[in-house]
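step=encode ok
step=design start
structure_in=
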C-alpha cells in the first residue's frame, strides 16, 4: 500500500517538474526579446525601454502564476489520469488514497488488486504524462533568432529616428561659393509659450512653419558659427526686427495675435519664407437638449421643468449659469423679475453636463405665469456664449387662449360656470390634508365635494335638455341595480299613443322645429359635435361624483381633470365673434418673439451713393505688365527691383489669409530679384509661378457687352438669300 502511494507521489513530482520546465522556457522566450532590446538601446529610447521592461516583468508574472497553478495539482487528479490512461487499473486507483480500515471487504480486495496492477503497469522510470514540447521549443528558437537580430542592428538606427531632427533654415539666394565662407546658423531653437488661458506649458517647435495659439509668445534663439554683423527677423515684409545678442546667442521674443510671414536675414542673406498661423480661441458651445424651446405645463401636471444641456470649450470653461425671467400678469399690468440660477458649475472644465430640475412654485409662479430662461458660459479668455431664449408657460384655465381676441369684437356668450377648477383645487387640498384630518371630517368634506360636483353637473345638464336629475348619468334615469328592466309606462305619458292624433295639424308640423327642454334628445341649444363633448364632460362628472361620495378623492381627481378639459373645449367651440371694421393686423406670435431681440426685418434708413472704388493692387498690375514684356524678350534694369519689391509686399499682405498658398510664389519672386541684382538670365519657371499668383490676387473683371457670333448652316444661308431676293423683287 505504501509503495503505491509513493508511486503516485513520484508521478505528481515528475509532472510538476516537466510542466514547470516548459513554463520556464516559454517565459524565457518572451524575456529574451525584452532583454535584447534593453541591452541594445538601454534607456536612450524611452518607448522601447518601457516596452522591454514591461515584457520582462510580464514574463516573470507569467512564471509565478504558472508555478502557483502547478502547486494545486493533487493526488486525486493523478489517480483520475491513471484511470483514463491504463484500463487494467479498472477505474479503482482512487482506492489507494483511502485508509484500509475504512474500506469493506470487497474494496480491500480491489485495493490489493490495483496495487499489484500499478506496479506491473508503471515501471519505476517510465513517464505516464506525454506533454507537447514541440511548440515551446519552436517559440524559444524564434525568440533566440529575434534577439540575435536585434543585437545585430546598429544602435543609432532607431534611436536617432525617434529624436526630433534639429531645425534648419534654407537660404536659397546664397550662392554655393559664398555659403562656405559666410556666417551660417549652427542651431536654432523656437520656443512657443501659450497664453495663460490655454493652461498649457511651453514647448519646442519641430519646424520653422509655426502654428500657435492666439496670444502666444514665440521666442527665437539662434547660434551662429561666428559673430554676425546683422541678424534680423522680417515680419510681413515690414520693418526688420533685430535679434539681441547674449553670450554668442541671438534672441528675439514676440507675442502674436494675427498670422504672419517671416524670414531671417543674416548679413543681408535672406532665408526662405515661413508661415506663422494663429489658432483662434473658440467661444464656448452650448447645446440644450431638454426642454423644447416652447413648453406649456398643462393643468394638473407637475409644475417643474428639467433642463439638460452640454457645455464645452476648446481650452476650458471659467463660469456658467442660467438667467431666468419670470413674467406675471397680463396686458399692461405684466411684471418681470429676473434671477440668476446656479447650474452646479465649479472649477475649470472643458466639458460640463447640465441636469437641473427647476421647481416653478419656488420661483413664485402660478397659473398663467411665464418663464424665460437662457444659459450663458464664459471661457478662460474673452469668449462668451449664451443660448437662445426658452419659454415655459403654466396653463391658465381661467382664460381661453385665442389670438382672435385682438382683432375680434364682442363675445355674446358668457363664460359658463368655472367652478369645476375650484372643485379640483379643493380635491387636491383634501388629499394633501388627509393625514391630518379625522376620518369623520375627511368623509364629510369628501361628501360635500361630491354634492358640489352634482350641482355643477345638473347646471350643465340643462343645456342638453336634462331638466330632471332622473335623466342624468350613465344609467339614463334607471335606478341602480335595476338595469335590464323595462321602464314602466302609464296612460298619458306619451308612450302609449301618438302625441298628435292629426299629423296634418299646425302643431304636428311645427313640432320638429321647437326647442323642448323636457325632452333630452330634442334639445337644440348646441350643435351635435359640441353636444357630444358636453355629454362626455357630464359623464366624467358623474364618475368623479361617485368616487367623492364614496370617500375616494384620489380616484376622482383624473375624472375631474378630464371633465375640465372637455368643458374648455366646449366653451371654445361656443364662442361667437363679430369682426371689427378697418385694419386687421396679422396675429402676433408672442411665445416666439418675446425677448428674442430679432431686428433682422427692421430696415434702417439708408442713403445710396455711387463712389468709384480705388484701383486695387496697383503695383501688382504694373508688375504683370513688366512680366508680359519679359516674356516677349524685353530687357530688365536695376530699377525694376523696386517695382517687384512693392508688388511682393502686396502679395505678402494678401498671403496672410492663406499663408501656405503663396509661399512658392514669394520665394520665386525672391529668386527673380536675385537674378536681376546678379545680372543673370531670369528663371522662366519663376516667371510663370509669380504671374499665376498675381493673377489670382486680382479681382474678377466686370463683364462687358459683346457681339454674339452666330453660325448658320448652308440650308439657313440659302433660306436667307432667297428671302433677301424676294424682298428686292
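sequence_out=
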Amino acid at each position: 500500500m505504501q509503495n503505491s502511494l509513493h508511486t503516485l507521489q513520484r508521478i505528481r513530482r515528475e509532472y510538476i517538474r516537466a510542466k514547470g520546465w516548459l513554463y520556464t522556457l516559454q517565459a524565457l522566450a518572451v524575456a529574451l526579446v525584452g532583454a535584447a532590446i534593453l541591452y541594445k538601446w538601454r534607456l536612450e529610447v524611452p518607448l522601447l525601454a518601457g516596452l522591454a521592461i514591461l515584457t520582462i516583468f510580464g514574463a516573470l508574472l507569467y512564471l509565478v502564476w504558472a508555478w502557483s497553478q502547478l502547486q494545486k495539482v493533487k493526488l486525486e487528479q493523478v489517480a483520475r489520469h491513471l484511470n483514463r490512461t491504463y484500463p487494467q487499473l479498472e477505474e479503482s486507483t482512487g482506492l489507494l488514497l483511502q485508509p484500509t480500515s475504512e474500506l469493506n471487504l470487497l474494496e480491500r480486495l480491489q485495493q490489493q488488486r490495483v496495487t499489484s496492477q500499478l506496479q506491473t503497469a508503471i515501471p519505476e522510470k517510465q513517464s505516464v504524462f506525454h506533454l507537447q514540447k514541440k511548440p515551446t521549443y519552436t517559440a524559444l528558437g524564434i525568440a533566440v533568432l529575434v534577439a540575435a537580430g536585434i543585437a545585430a542592428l546598429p544602435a543609432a538606427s532607431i534611436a536617432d529616428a525617434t529624436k526630433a531632427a534639429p531645425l534648419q533654415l534654407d537660404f536659397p539666394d546664397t550662392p554655393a561659393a559664398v555659403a562656405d565662407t559666410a556666417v551660417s546658423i549652427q542651431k536654432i531653437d523656437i520656443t512657443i509659450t501659450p497664453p495663460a488661458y490655454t493652461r498649457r506649458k511651453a514647448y519646442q517647435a519641430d519646424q520653422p512653419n509655426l502654428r500657435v495659439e492666439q496670444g502666444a509668445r514665440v521666442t527665437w534663439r539662434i547660434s551662429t558659427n561666428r559673430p554676425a554683423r546683422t541678424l534680423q527677423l522680417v515680419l510681413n515684409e515690414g520693418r526688420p526686427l533685430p535679434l539681441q545678442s547674449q553670450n554668442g546667442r541671438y534672441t528675439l521674443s514676440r507675442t502674436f495675435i494675427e498670422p504672419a510671414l517671416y524670414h531671417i536675414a543674416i548679413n543681408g542673406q535672406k532665408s526662405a519664407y515661413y508661415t506663422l498661423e494663429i489658432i483662434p480661441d473658440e467661444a464656448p458651445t452650448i447645446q440644450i437638449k431638454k426642454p423644447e424651446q416652447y413648453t406649456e405645463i398643462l393643468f394638473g401636471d407637475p409644475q417643474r421643468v428639467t433642463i439638460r444641456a452640454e457645455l464645452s470649450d476648446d481650452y476650458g470653461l471659467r463660469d456658467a449659469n442660467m438667467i431666468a425671467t419670470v413674467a406675471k400678469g397680463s396686458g399692461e399690468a405684466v411684471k418681470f423679475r429676473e434671477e440668476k440660477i446656479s447650474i452646479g458649475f465649479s472649477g475649470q472644465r472643458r466639458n460640463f453636463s447640465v441636469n437641473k430640475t427647476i421647481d416653478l412654485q419656488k420661483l413664485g409662479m402660478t397659473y398663467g405665469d411665464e418663464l424665460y430662461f437662457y444659459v450663458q458660459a464664459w471661457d478662460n479668455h474673452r469668449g462668451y456664449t449664451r443660448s437662445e431664449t426658452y419659454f415655459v408657460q403654466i396653463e391658465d384655465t381661467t382664460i381661453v387662449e385665442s389670438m382672435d381676441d385682438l382683432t375680434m369684437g364682442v363675445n355674446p356668450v358668457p363664460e359658463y360656470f368655472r367652478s369645476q377648477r375650484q372643485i379640483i383645487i379643493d380635491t387636491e387640498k383634501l388629499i394633501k390634508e388627509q393625514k391630518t384630518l379625522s376620518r369623520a371630517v375627511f368623509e364629510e368634506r369628501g361628501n360635500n365635494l361630491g354634492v358640489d360636483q352634482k350641482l355643477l353637473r345638473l347646471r350643465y345638464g340643462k343645456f342638453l335638455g336634462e331638466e330632471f336629475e332622473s335623466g342624468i348619468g350613465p344609467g339614463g334615469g334607471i335606478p341602480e341595480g335595476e338595469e335590464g328592466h323595462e321602464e314602466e309606462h302609464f296612460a298619458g305619458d306619451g308612450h302609449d299613443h301618438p302625441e298628435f292624433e292629426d299629423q296634418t295639424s299646425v302643431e304636428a308640423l311645427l313640432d320638429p322645429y321647437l326647442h323642448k327642454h323636457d325632452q333630452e334628445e330634442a334639445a337644440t341649444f348646441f350643435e351635435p359635435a359640441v353636444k357630444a363633448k358636453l355629454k362626455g364632460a357630464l359623464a366624467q362628472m358623474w364618475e368623479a361624483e361617485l368616487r367623492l361620495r364614496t370617500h375616494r378623492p384620489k380616484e376622482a381627481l383624473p375624472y375631474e381633470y378630464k371633465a375640465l378639459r372637455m368643458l374648455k373645449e366646449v366653451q371654445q367651440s361656443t364662442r361667437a365673434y363679430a369682426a371689427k371694421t378697418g385694419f386687421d393686423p396679422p396675429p402676433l406670435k408672442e411665445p416666439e418673439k418675446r425677448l428674442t431681440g430679432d431686428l433682422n426685418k427692421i430696415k434702417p434708413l439708408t442713403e445710396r451713393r455711387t463712389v468709384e472704388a480705388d484701383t486695387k493692387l496697383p503695383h501688382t498690375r504694373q508688375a504683370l505688365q513688366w512680366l508680359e514684356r519679359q516674356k516677349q524678350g524685353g530687357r530688365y534694369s536695376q530699377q525694376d527691383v523696386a517695382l517687384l519689391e512693392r508688388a511682393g509686399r502686396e502679395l505678402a499682405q494678401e498671403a496672410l489669409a492663406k499663408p501656405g498658398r503663396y509661399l512658392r510664389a514669394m520665394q520665386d519672386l525672391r529668386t527673380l530679384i536675385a537674378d536681376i541684382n546678379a545680372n543673370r538670365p531670369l528663371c522662366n519657371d519663376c516667371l510663370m509661378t509669380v504671374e499665376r499668383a498675381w493673377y489670382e490676387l486680382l479681382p474678377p473683371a466686370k463683364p462687358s457687352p459683346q457681339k454674339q457670333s452666330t453660325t448658320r448652316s448652308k440650308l439657313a444661308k440659302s433660306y436667307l438669300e432667297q428671302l433677301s431676293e424676294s424682298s428686292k423683287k
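step=design ok
step=annotate ok -> Residues 232 and 242 are 4 Å apart (CA to CA).
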